[in-house]
Amino acid sequence: MTAQETAQAATQGYDWTAFSDREALAETLADRVAETLSAAIERRGAGFLAVSGGTTPGRFFAALSSRPIAWDKVTVTLVDERFVPPSSPRSNAALVADTLLRNAASAARFAPLYHAADSAADAAIAAEAELATLPWPLDAAVLGMGTDGHTASFFPDADTLPDLLDPHNARIVLPVEAASAGEPRLTLSMPRLTGAGFLALHIEGAEKRAVFEAAMQAAIQGDDRKPIRAVIEASPRPVNVFWAP
Ligand SMILES: O=C1O[C@H](COP(=O)(O)O)[C@@H](O)[C@H](O)[C@H]1O
Questions:
Q1: Potential cystine with 200: which of 167, 218, 236, 240 (Cβ 3.0-4.6 Å)?
Q2: Which residue CA neighbors atom 1 of ligand 1 most closely?
Q3: 186 phi and psi, to 5 degrees?
Q4: In the chain, what are the domain boundaries?
């Protein structure tokens, strides 16, 4: 039995679960996502998953990759992507290919956000056309968070932050220009993420716990909110926060 604490914080729109260690978190999150995808396949013949990149999800991806579900009926896409080709060490698609789409999960279909184009805006239009054909809504989406409170590629200093945080944005994929992002980005839109049947936030370490708690407790409204708080508040159901020290 994993030593974990679960705090119901429905008033703040999230369920907090703290794990004793990162391996226990990875195994439990992999079980939840696998169960969610299997139920979707049973219900509608398909499973649809969006995952984040960065440095946090590696253990989770490794655990999920071996879960014995009907991966040939699953489509995997990205919550967000750096505007770089898969050959780049910055590519979230490369991380997913190397750590998630192997073992049993190698049978899944992958739908990238990155497309070779003159700009992230042009790439977003290309991605929009491909992703429009996928079996929306997402059955599961797993968010990460930076220490600046960004999630997906909703960066606090993004040029178009109001559009990125718009819970009614009609787009599927949006380009992002933000000085702090390192490079132009591509991100799923707010309603596509909050429309997921199972929406999780996977964060690790004391610093990110403090950033999350401060974001949720801050006495501010509107676009001064940290983006992670905007997502929590836009979600029609409590976001499942998975944290380990
Ligand atoms: O740039 C990104 O940052 C976030 C957080 O990454 P982490 O390395 O702190 O886990 C990530 O969720 C997102 O997918 C990525 O593009």
A1: 240
A2: 54
A3: -130, 135
A4: 32-244
Share of the chain above pLDDT 90, in %: 91
Q: Is the CB of 187 under 6 A from ligand 1?
A: no
For the chain, what is the radius of gyration of the CA atoms? 17
Which residues contact residue 121 at a Cβ distance below 8 angstroms, ignoring those fewer than 6 apart?
175
What single letter denotes the amino acid at residue 62? A
Was domain 32-244 assigned CATH 3.40.50.1360? yes
167 contacts: CB under 8 Å, gap ≥ 6? 190, 191, 194, 234
H runs (alpha helix) in 69-172: 92-99, 120-131, 161-164
User: Does the CB atom of residue 144 touch ligand 1 within 6 A?
Assistant: yes
ipTM reported for the complex, 2 dp: 0.98
**Rounded-to-integer distance, Cα 223 and Cα 217, Å:** 15
Question: How many Cβ atoms sit within 10 Å of the Cβ of residue 109?
Answer: 15
Q: Is 91 in the pocket of ligand 1 (CB under 6 A)?
A: no
pLDDT one-digit tens code per residue, 69-126: 999 999 999 999 999 999 999 999 999 999 999 999 999 999 999 999 999 999 999 9
